[in-house]
Write a structure and sequence with these properties.
With 342 residues, this protein is mainly beta. The protein has helices at 3-27, 276-279, and strands at 33-34, 41-43, 53-54, 67-74, 84-91, 97-105, 111-118, 123-127, 136-144, 158-168, 171-178, 180-182, 195-196, 207-213, 222-228, 237-245, 250-257, 260-264, 286-294, 297-299, 302-308, 315-318, 320-324, 331-332. The protein has 2 helices and 24 strands. The chain is globular, with a radius of gyration of 20 Å. The model is unreliable at 6-16, 24-58 and 335-342 (pLDDT under 50).
């Protein structure tokens, strides 16, 4: 084994150890036991009570705000093709507002930006392909002072939604979801930064909990996990996944992603030991906790759970966000935009 490979393994072990220590303080974990002949650890925790987490009402899909996040879009030049997303943004206020759009390509984290203007009480609809054809990724939309200095504005009257029709991993997906919204707080217009610290903007959640994880029945449906982070770069994020079965046992796995993750749930993701189809077999159900880990602990992200295929279970839902009892990390949106500081 080369020194480089050894270094990567040590780094991965350190990150995983940090995640376990962080989780243990939040969920009162018992001793960690190693699954025999496997390289993935099983954590004999009990399912935490609601008191484990602080109430998190920051990123809310049904309240108006100044900053919106649409975690997934897919586009094609031909609206009748396999990938089509219709996006809506509504101004619920009584003033005109300029909205900046940031389309982030999920494959390379490159950003395409544009603007639109909404009059008082106006709602607008557009296709993702109008701005970024033949791509998939996520969209950020936020109120700005003007199109010259590009400074974000405090205007907590924006709501939005997206309707997605796309073929992902060979399976047809169709559903609608509401955009996550963040309010601007405690700052006079215009704001000087996009900082999510509960002073400038509301926090992003630092742990996600996905209910209704179904067994693997690929002939009927597939479930996809979609995650996004407040960054526009190709830096690898470490992801810790805890899968709970309906007998209150928990199994762990790890993965990495950049600015966006789109993964089908199967035996390879999350790669638990034993494999996922044993953890949640046919006729059973479970749920999953997802945590992006950095040097400071659990880090901000948002997500969707998408169920696709020929089934009445199909649809898209937000993955519930929460903060550990020691609070959310602050985050500043990095890259992809600039504004004058004068």
């Amino acid at each position: 084994m080369s020194n480089k490979d050894l270094g990567k393994k040590i780094q991965a072990l350190l990150v995983f150890s940090l995640a376990i220590i962080f989780l243990a303080s939040a969920v009162s974990a018992e001793n960690i036991t190693q699954t025999p002949d496997q390289d993935v650890q099983q954590l004999p925790m009990s399912i935490p009570t609601l008191s484990t987490f602080s109430a998190h009402k920051d990123a809310v899909p049904d309240e108006a705000g100044s900053f919106l996040v649409y975690p997934y879009y897919a586009s094609s030049i031909n609206m009748h093709s396999s990938s089509f997303t219709q996006i809506s943004i509504t101004n619920t206020g009584d003033k005109e507002v300029i909205v900046k759009l940031l389309f982030v390509d999920g494959s390379n984290c490159l950003v395409s930006d544009n603007y639109l203007t909404l009059s008082a009480h106006q709602s607008t609809f557009f296709s993702a392909s109008d701005y970024v054809p033949e791509t998939s990724g996520f969209l950020i939309a936020y109120a700005v002072n003007n199109t010259i200095d590009n400074k974000p504005a405090k205007y907590n009257h924006l709501i939005g939604s997206a309707r997605v029709s796309a073929v992902i991993s060979g399976v047809y997906c169709d559903g609608e979801y509401n955009a996550y919204t963040f309010k601007a707080l405690n700052y006079d217009y215009p704001l000087l930064s996009l900082t999510f610290d509960n002073d400038h903007f509301e926090h992003w959640p630092n742990t996600l909990m996905a209910p209704g994880i179904l067994p693997l029945l690929s002939e009927e449906y597939l479930q996809f996990v979609i995650l996004v982070t407040p960054s526009f770069d190709m830096l690898q994020n470490n992801l810790v996944m805890l899968v709970y079965d309906d007998a209150e046992q928990v199994y762990s796995a790890m993965s990495t992603f950049t600015c966006q993750l789109v993964k089908v749930i199967n035996d390879d993701f999350p790669r638990t030991a034993p494999r996922f189809d044993t953890v949640i077999p046919a006729g059973r159900s479970g749920w999953m906790r997802l945590i992006k880990v950095n040097d400071n602990g659990a880090a901000p992200m948002l997500g969707l759970l998408m169920t696709c295929g020929q089934t009445t279970l199909g649809g898209i839902e937000q993955i519930h966000g929460a903060c550990f009892s020691n609070g959310c990390q602050n985050a500043t949106l990095s890259g992809g935009f600039q504004w004058n500081q004068n």
